[in-house]
């Protein structure tokens, strides 16, 4: 068996929830005759989602959502799956990246699945010729949801999109544990740097940021959190983390990890005061959180290692990982989120896609939440796979919780 299929099968054995859904899809074929277009990180866990959709009768066209996150052997293996067409490749240029997105859209998908909203953005701007045939989409990540909500607020979103990112099963597991573990793993594997005793600066205390802060602290790091929201900053303080502005943190930090999904989080003003040898990384989304252009334009010399660019500026050196792209996927040793976490996230994707196929006529063009029953179903599947049992409300308890006139 080739290396791509070996990776896919390795992941499959630790994805019991998605496997159970795939078994049902094989029987029911909810996507029979439908074309699904996808722009996701093309690696082993994603491949199992693609195979699950194909098991449900879909013809799937997929490309990457990041120029450095594709695993080429997995992409090659996916291209051999019946009714699956994969156009992703690692290290593609910007032109090649959008050419692959256009190739996906040339297949005239009726459902889109995005990580960052690039397919949907392309559909609404450059490829409006395909737009009328799309019945709905799913969005995987926080950055994409922010963009979609802005688009909907402007009245520009022309089909319903399910915010797969905005569900408890995604926030509490994918964001907290997935990003938290995989980003630190990628940093350590790429740099061979010790976490214990270091000043780790985490930009943003959303679900991803708090997962990173907690796990870095568990490894012995001294964690600084930067925030723009006073409530999240106070929450970080109450959890025992140091809270300060990025300008203050820039003078202290040894390793910086951005998780905001916004731009210009670490700028030249910050890098000017950083100490020599700092490591900069992004676990948010696009490569605009850290100002790599400033680094390139101010560097006296640049050294390149696997996954690391070292910028020598005025007698000190600043190390940028993965060109400022997603560190857990874009470094050469990046594997993305742990398999068991993506089992849950991709189960949500599969069931949300099925929901769109069945209920799209009931949904207006807007950003919609994942139905609560789907979120609970995924949790129940996972508990069953772990042989864990929980309690159920009795009739008296249900009556009590649904009543307003029970006093003390």
UniProtKB/TrEMBL annotation:
Keyword NAD: yes
Example of a GO biological process term: one-carbon metabolic process
Sequence ranges assigned to domain S-adenosyl-L-homocysteine hydrolase NAD binding in this UniProt record: 175-334
Gene Ontology MF, one: adenosylhomocysteinase activity
Binding site for NAD(+): 141-143, 206-211, 227, 283-285, 328, 337
Source organism superkingdom: Archaea
Protein family (similarity comment): Belongs to the adenosylhomocysteinase family.
Family annotation (NCBIfam families): ahcY, PRK05476.2-3
Name of the protein in question: Adenosylhomocysteinase
